[in-house]
Here is the input.
Amino acid sequence: MADLTNRRIALAKRRLTNILTKHSVATMRTLEQKISDAGPTNQRIDPHLLTKAHLELEREGKLVRLQRAKSHWFHLAETNENAVRQRLQVLEPIHDATLEGNFVRRLGQALEIPVFKALQGQTKLHFLGAFTDLSDHDDSSLYRKEEHPEYVNGLSMPQKKKLDFLIFRGEVVAGIEVKNTRPWVYPDSEEVVELIAKCCAINAVPILIARRIHYATFSVLSNCGVILHQTYNQRYPKADEQLAALARDKNLLGYHDIRLGNDPDVRLIKFIHTNLPGLLDRFRESFENFMDLLRAYAQREMGYREFAGRSKRRLRGEPEDLPPFEAPDEGEGGDDWI
Here is the structure.
């Protein structure tokens, strides 16, 4: 297993070197897009291993990290400084525009609204949470969102942090969190921990919809009653078509998976209309069986390694209190994920 990991890191170092030789300088998000999301399937490297690869290259003096105003940029030590400077003059304004505050808020709505529209178009689930002025203006400004109530069955979420939507099917309550961001979601990602904390507080099945979700997140959390759905693309508001074109360009940021507009696609409709209603009862049972572990993990009373070990032992019907807790499976990473 260690040999396989080392081979994957070595491949990641070669791919990093090749891409930075061609593009001179790039952020980690661009490097992930080109190495983790794209390329031949057998050459794609998961982000946590890609991080280990670039750290090794830095220690070897072959990779240079630049701290700029809004992000880190990376280039090979041998790259001409003028080439780096010229590329930054082109790339940095585009990258900074994708991090601008108002755009980021509208970016969040660009995926929340398709989820809302998909929920509107089905008949098997009741739900709370709505956008009330979608027909009043375009997506160059924020839409008004009506949140769900603070209390659900007499229970409230910590620090009044609400979910994006609540759904109901019979006696089953579930909470949906929507994340339209670029980083892959790992089991210890903040958005996962917050979702679990909110849903444990109100006794609701957790549902996460995000661009990319790492295998480990499915492997560990699906067995514990957490429903996960990948969109495989990032939504941009239609009003930002020009920025989308620049960010998507393979010779610029290279975010090839950007899609415009806030209408749900076929994949999202199938998940909301067909898959989700059929999953809720089964995942509700799993959620109840693992809620004590989920709650302890979300409240930081238990680290990931112990949580993963205990949940897997419980799933197999084995004693849970036998340390040391097993290491994650190959591909699941560990406590050093980005």
